[in-house]
Design goal:
The chain is about 25% helix and about 15% strand. The structure holds 2-oxoglutaric acid (AKG). The site of 2-oxoglutaric acid has 8 residues, from strand 3.
């Protein structure tokens, strides 16, 4: 994995907003290969008869088995994004989730969509909303342009990662009352990094084209990955370079040091300072 430096303003953006846009993270040819692989997986979804007024019918969220396809596998340690995540979270991470998310066009005059606002990784269900740490970052790779409002991009409640409360919705409405819901404008090839604490939700695609994204989540190795990544696929491990091997859960024991990314971080001068257990005074 080549080195890409995390700029101070990128760190500040994630710290302040809860998300960070990385323009042109994928080149045109990668986007085309990913769309080809994604469309093959989504073939039956894309060919269903048109039904404009049913959100679930027009929303595909495909998770298991994606990495068997070469273009999806190549993103596991992608050089324009994963180095940024290593500099934000440190080297002790692995891949936590993968998703191919397509949304077909829906009725442009449809009623407001029932949202599913949430924080990732379900930590608040056990720990509550107060004092949550950042433990994971997802990368959303745009495979289509998102130039219009309501064109299928995930909505984010700006700065909600800093809130220690549930999101407040007025009765009968779908979006938060005291926070900005960001419907970002992005180009195909851009990547959007967002951290686990930010409230976000799927939203309908009221444009005339299918919206296409891929989401790869990275989290500390002590966070159990989603079920289909839990037992690493031996075939994938066999062909993985050392960094991808770590990211795929190749070290089964979390007490084993994350050698591959630790060495990579040291080589590029971005290894975090060691945290001692004790200090002698
Ligand atoms: O489908 C979307 O736009 C949102 C996906 C999402 O919320 C998630 O992966 O956590």
């Amino acid at each position: 994995m080549d080195f890409t430096e995390l700029k101070p303003e990128q760190r500040s953006s994630l710290d302040a907003e809860g998300f960070l846009v990385v323009p042109k993270a994928l080149d045109r040819s990668m986007v085309e290969q990913l769309i080809e692989a994604g469309d093959r997986r989504a073939e039956s979804f894309l060919n269903k008869p048109e039904v404009l007024d049913r959100a679930e019918y027009n929303h595909l969220d495909l998770r298991p088995g994606l990495l068997a396809d070469e273009p999806f596998f190549a993103l596991v340690a992608h050089s324009s994004t994963v180095p940024l995540i290593v500099q934000l979270l440190g080297p002790n991470i692995h891949l936590h989730s993968t998703a191919l998310i397509y949304k077909r066009p829906e009725d442009p005059d449809g009623v407001p969509f029932r949202r599913g606002w949430h924080r990732d990784i379900r930590m608040p269900k056990d720990l509550g909303h107060q004092g949550l740490p950042r433990v994971g970052i997802k990368v959303c790779y745009c495979l289509t342009d998102f130039h219009q409002p309501n064109s299928g991009m995930t909505l984010f409640a700006r700065q909600s990662h800093l809130s220690g409360e549930p999101l407040i919705l007025a009765k009968g409405t779908v979006d938060p009352v005291d926070m900005e819901s960001c419907d970002l404008r992005l180009d195909a090839g851009d990547a959007l990094l967002f951290e686990n604490r930010i409230f976000h939700t799927a939203a309908p695609n009221r444009s005339e084209r299918v919206s296409r994204v891929l989401m790869y989540g990275y989290a500390y190795r002590w966070m159990k990955p989603e079920v289909y990544l839990d037992i690493p696929d031996q075939e994938l491990l066999n062909k993985a370079d050392p960094i991808s091997r770590q990211l795929l859960g190749g070290y089964r024991d979390v007490d084993t040091a994350p050698w591959a990314l630790q060495h990579w971080a040291a080589r590029h001068g971005v290894a975090p300072a060691p945290v001692p257990w004790t200090i002698e005074v």
